[in-house]
Queue: 3 jobs
Job 1
Amino acid sequence: MSFQQGLSGLNAASSSLDVIGNNISNASTVGFKSGSANFSDIYAASLGIVSGAKIGIGVGVGAVQQQFTQGNLTTTNNPLDLALNGGGFFRLSDEGAISYTRNGQFHIDNGGYIINDQRARLTGYPVAANGTITPSNPVELQISAGQIAPLASSDPLAGEMRAVLNLDSRGSVPAVTPFDFSDPETYNYSTALTVFDTLGVVHNLTTFYVLNGTAAPGEWTVHATLDGANPQVVSGSNPGGNLVFNTSGALDPASALRTLPTWNLTTGAATPWSPGVMDFTGTTQYGSGSNVDRLTQGGFTSGSLVGVGVNADGIVQGRYSNGQTRNMGQVVLATFADPNGLLSLGNNQWSLTSLSGPELIGAPASGSRGVIQSAAVEDSNVDLTKALVDMITAQRNYQANAQTIKTQDQIMQTLVNLR
């Protein structure tokens, strides 16, 4: 029986060395999870016979379990290198076959799909036409390389233009009249804003502010030009169509919204065209120099894709040459009741089994799922120092079991030599 015990010990030590060697060989493999060999004793007894001498007959490998502990994160120069900090697995699709991985080294193929080195496609939630993402059945994420259409400053989706100014209450009525945008002596202050027509063509909108010589010293007339031509008065709903301030320098809310005039365009865009409504809420008339605190509009020209990034919540965003960003989907993560029940497929990929339980899909940072760090990878969680010490221990175990076989052989030889 000692031969069998020793042999089982040699096999167990050899299996342990195999696991340790596999760990060491993958010490630099991105997303690799180290394994450990679990051993169990082997006991033999005849059914129904109770014996006081319960000597086992050796050892066996009970299981090889992977340790799904967190690996260190290392930054890279690829924005599609994704590191998982926390629980979960990336979900991949290879012609409909689903697998899971912690290796987040991804890139884009010629079809725009986000793929790994084995060309399996990363999956996630799709994006609606308006840019919103709603949890649904995951799809293969695809990056569109097409241009995004322009958005006119007058489009309701662009929102209202905002102008927050301070107009100097110490100013005097211009000595030169009438208003002439080419003559600074005919107005008190001016400022410019870039706007976009329905084709995304850039126009320069300049607004001019003239202090009125009325009995109410807090009234300012606003004029506007588009591309330096055709000055017109900016209209409003209040009497006289002016910006009206009270004695505290606050703007009368009734005069805050100003409808910009229309101009005839020659760009091929819709004409006559108005940039829309300018909201002056927050504008003041204080005794300090005229200045601009805020001047914004929501239109933009067309743009080409110049880069892709992934947020911590897994949302994939495209960056465009016009300064805009667009959601292109959201990476999903899968968790399992028992990750050790997953079937290893190699290439740092696993598939689910009845032991792992069904996949539980959700967005990063939800539930027990980790967050995503773009331009980074998760290193192997192999502890080389521990692996080398374990290898020495396994070697000693192998030598000890070999010694038991040698000793048993010597005993048997002594018995054979008896006369």
Note: The longest strand covers residues 202-211.
Job 2
Amino acid sequence: MNLGPRFNRFAKAAFFATVLTVSHVICQGSASAGGVVIQTPVGLQGTDKFRIIFVTPGTIQATSSDIKTYNDFVNSQAAGATYEGATIHWSAIVSTDTVNARDNIGLTNSGVYMADGTKVATAANTVPGGLWWGDPLLADPVKDLNGNTYSGSVWTGTCGIGTEYVTMALPDGSNTKILASWGAGNSTNFTSGGISYANQVEVGNIGGGGYSWVSTGFVTLNTSALHVYAISDVLTVVPEPSTFMISGLGIFMVGFAQKLRKRNGNASLDS
């Protein structure tokens, strides 16, 4: 049986398959129908894990006490951003009366990066350099997924350790319990120093260092429209096959097919 023609067809099919695979590997991450394509931060490899943080380009009021309101908002602001072809899920870095920010996003040990690859924290945790340690690496303002920067206040409803405020420091160093919360959706009033505060929510400063990125120590009327921080679920680096290995296999298959065709041709002449 002469397997030459059949093998030639197989080799050609294998070659075109490898070309398509290489094209997919090269083009993956450069385009997406859903939105921004997140690239693996430089230095990560194998099955390293990481998270992406961004600030929403749009604004929202903090009148809702339902954390789902803010989670839905940040996911809509992400506009279908993907990593390795999968749509990313995001959580708002926001505290309400019933849900603390660090519980909403989950405490994890993976590094936190902006979409441009800038590392902003060693982890979304209470470890040194972590988001809730008090001095994360937020030297630059957190950007949106397209690399745009913003300034001013951002809704957080939380203190520097990722929870809603429950006490307030007094000048003598002691703490007093806050009778009204400063979480998102706050609709209560309290008086401090003769000043009455109504419907106030804690805010952070975009790009602020230390605790101030989430907690400036000031509260803002919850009907104001401000940005919100968002953080992705934990993402895992997906090792990619070597494009050189794949293309090399394709070249080998074509070369082998050519040799087989020549041998079959010589055999036909001898017969």
Note: DSSP finds four helices and 15 strands in the chain.
Job 3
Amino acid sequence: MKKNVLSAILAAAAVGALAAGSASAEEAKTYTVGICQLMEHDALGAATQGFKDALTDKLGDAVTFDEQNAQGDSNTCSTIINSFVSSNVDLILANATPALQAAVAATDTIPILGTSVTEYGVALGIDDFNGTVGGNISGTSDLAPLDEQAAMLNTLFPDAKKVGLLYCSAEANSQYQVDTVKAALEELGYSCELYAFSDSNDLASVTTTVSTACDVLYIPTDNTAANNTEIINNICLPAGLPIVVGEEGICKGCGVATLSISYYDLGYATGEMAYRILAEGEDISTMPIEYAPQFTKKYNAQLCEELGITIPEDYIAIGAEEEAETEAVTE
């Protein structure tokens, strides 16, 4: 009898030890996430930071990041992504369309989340895209309501006749945006012309051409333009050409107004998706692309003043929110 009791006690202890060991292993699980960011500019940087903050908030020290920047080169994106695949990272964040395209070409097993990608159907060549990519791919989109951007331009510049649309021809999502905005502007009665540059090398010459040919310029969420706003501003400002743009970072550098999202919030939402995949086992193949929940009318106060443009009261000056937060902290 005593032997039976002792055996039962030992068996229970063994089960408890196994359970404790299993729980300990679960607690000790760690994740490595590879981040490929196309280039350095405000929007992409904010998205990356938001993504990292979300995962760190959820996982703490259990997640580490291998963060690399491709410096605007799609071939470098491929090199970076291939290194992630060789290292067998747990998940890849592809920040911007060329990074996403490189990731899709490199692996069909490691989960891939895109961010700062405007239209996944265009980026990945998917006809009749229904909102879910499938396979090992999902993510977030920075697509703003393009018809509302056209309406914004119309509100600010109702007397303009000709609108130029400046974009990088190497960025498929930029082409999609300018085509859509052009159609919306033409319905509003504007004469429109597309001005494409192939890369930063011919940006100045194309911008110089458009600076004297149009009344207003529109620039979409274009990465090459975002990385070269100083060039654009140095040409368009002296020419007196106002620019309506697709996102806040470009507006800060050379635009007068934008209907923009928070790229930090977009990145944070992507990080929350990553947590659900890594820690909760959610099936990425069934996860639809997520979109920014809200858009804000913002303006560049300095450029508007220099160009003599009056902005409606429902617009927020770029930097005003950050200044208000700083004042609240110091009070």
Note: The mean pLDDT is 90.
